[in-house]
Amino acid sequence: MSAGLKLGRRDLAQGIGGLWLLLACLAIAVAGLAAVTSLSSAIASTIDGQARELLGGDLALSVAQRSATPEERAAIARLGTVRESVTLRSTAQIGAQTALVDLSGIDQGWPAAGKITLVSGRLPASPTDAAIGRELAERYSLGIGAPIRIGYADFRVSGIIDKLPAPSGFALAPPVLVSRPGLDATRLVQPGSLYTSSYRLALPAGASPQALGKAFQQRFPEGGWRVTDKGEAAAGIRRFTERTGQMLLLIALGALGIGSIGIASAAGAFAASRRATIAILKVHGARTRDLALMLGTSVTILALVAILLGTLAGATVPAIVGQAAADVLPVAPDPMPQWAALARSALFGLLVTLAAAWVPLAKAVRARPAAVLRGDVDDARTDRRDLIVPLLAAAAVAALAILTSGSALVTAVTIAGGIALAFLFAGAGKLLALAARRFGARGGPITRLGLAALHRPGAATVRLSVALGLGLALLVALAGIGGSVRAELSGNIPAKAPALFMLDIPAAEEARFRSLAATQLPGADLRLVPSLRGPVTALNGQPVSALKAIPEGAWILRGDRGLTFARDLPEGNQVVEGRWWPANYSGPPLVSLDIEAARALKLKVGDTITVAVLGSPIKARIASFRSIDWRSLGFNFAIIFAPGTLEQAPYTLMATVSPTKGASTLGFERALAADLPMVSTIRVSDVVTQVNTILEGLDNAIRLATLVAIVIGITVLAGAVAATRRTRTRESVLLKLVGATRGQVLTAQGIEFAAMSGGIVTLAFLTGTAAAWGVVTRLFELPFKPDWPSLIALPLAGMVVAILTALAAAWPALRARPAAALRAV
């Protein structure tokens, strides 16, 4: 064993000194980071491991508003074992009540892979059987044998579904499964109806789902076929998890950044406690590298212990979340340890420790023995060469975060913003110290003592300003964003939105539908628009299937899109490029596109876009781009055709109903279900409730992650104050000797902490509020309406906690008795 390692082992046996702060900050930060990355990885692992079961096969081919042609059906059958289903949204009549459901007519033996898990009962065995989702059964107290009517057919509940294959993973409505003859009996599948035919395949061993899917699309390029392979199973859950995990990861990295301040403080306090030992060893001929290894050994061992504790805590999160939220999550996280995620979190911890602890240890090793033994204040200045390793380690942290994130640009911008905020709060700390120096002579002696502590040698004002400011600014920003979004969902949207959306209204029944609305809801605002569905199959003649990847933000290329045609520009839309066509337009096909989707695809006015409608390709020239106010909650279509193109295709109508104030829609819904059972009714209040539930869960997760950052900031504060205990004890004793009471000394320190935290809390509130305003108004394009009392209470509560924490950390110094303290000098 080398001399440095022997010295390190003996030194560590004397105690860890100030390294408890390193242990606490690093363990908490790594635990938060490991928890976030492990949970995201565990959900992805479940999706990857059960992709075939979640998809219901190795490959799924789907097409909107039609079934496969005989030629297409024969080509599908040659690929492998096929199981067909037809899915559409419908309104189920349950006694006097109605409910929106996802209705599927399935083949016998469906799905091609995986299975349907039932709570009780069995799958449909006859045309009058229906298996319903557990949510529907619980909401309406339906058991086996209960009657339910869908369309023009009556069914009996044969089974209650727990889980079934779903390519997207998310569903707006609970599922109902019936046989294909049962679906035919409902008479809901008609020309123009919004339904999807899906063909799930179990492929032969060794077959490539991606290659077969691509080949099928290329053989039938104008059929509007959507291909989903095992790698895209539960795509909705995957995207939601990745984006949520990305947000939580950035917060966890912010917490680790705040913890680095504590690590640096801990390393500095530890090095200060070993200054005399280092000086004596230098006098006796110890080499600098052995002394560096001595200090590095202690720090490394404590860092490894902290990282081990943090990763162990983070490794348990997937299993805990899986147990606690089993009924909420559509996919249960894999409870096994996510080794790659844990290793990545540990690497982050090691790199941050290296970046934060290197300079304090290097300064301690280079200190001159003569100055140390004379009792001088640490006179070692930072050598520029000492900054090389920390800068490289910090760059490695940033690079690792960017390379392993779902969005490199967002991560890079966030890191840059965090660094800018750190400099901002560091500058604020320096300004506080300068202000205390300049104006500290004013006021009484207690006030002067408190303010003087902000700029005395060794004061941690700057470090504490950064730690406290970053944590509170993050918390205020997230609270402001969450509060504004919730206010929009609970207040503005319900106030502006129509009460009902209705789908699949036969165009031939428009007059009958209007008559029902006029009878049941007199004075209601009723709006109808034509509706079709179809996928975008080509851009400027290039097939979408030939794209290597769909660009970020090009959501119009994912699956089928809602289509309509209109003479006049819809309300809530504004043409930003090109021209809207004349009301009497008659000519070649034209379309108007959403400007955001067009930018993502780098399209320009005059380019062409091909959309498959009922299997027939329609190539249209782009006439204009529109900005769409999606908050209007009217009929907002990303793709609108000019008149003269889609009128001859079978289409249905969509409608919105906004009744007069205080009027109930229940009577209209019941009459609609009885007279026009093919019409699907969506209550806006139900959708808002679902979205609110998702946002509340996301908000809680974000707040929990932010709490980790706050806890680390408080720990840094307590550790920094505790690190100055020797100085504070000396000052307390001297003050008591000249007649100061414990209360006066406590008041002086309270003024110190209040002045520091008050200024930083104010700045944190302003920066956090400004960031929230920017995100809400610019990114989300919503009004900024946070819960102001709660938002203001957050920094005030943070200030109180900071002061109390600092006073608690300083209390042992205040309790020191003069006689005992003087004997120890």
Automatic annotation (TrEMBL):
It comes from the Bacteria. InterPro entries: ABC3_permease_C, MacB_PCD, Membrane_comp_ABC_pdt. It holds the Pfam family MacB_PCD. The lineage of its organism: Bacteria, Pseudomonadati, Pseudomonadota, Alphaproteobacteria, Sphingomonadales. Residues 250-367, 705-816 form the ABC3 transporter permease C-terminal domain. It is a multi-pass membrane protein. It is found in: Cell membrane. Its main location: membrane. This is ABC transporter permease. PROSITE patterns: PROKAR_LIPOPROTEIN. It comes from Sphingomonas humi. Keywords: Cell membrane, Membrane, Transmembrane, Transmembrane helix. Residues 21-217 form the MacB-like periplasmic core domain. The chain crosses the membrane at residues 12-36, 247-270, 291-321, 341-365, 386-403, 409-433, 464-485, 701-723, 753-776, 788-814.
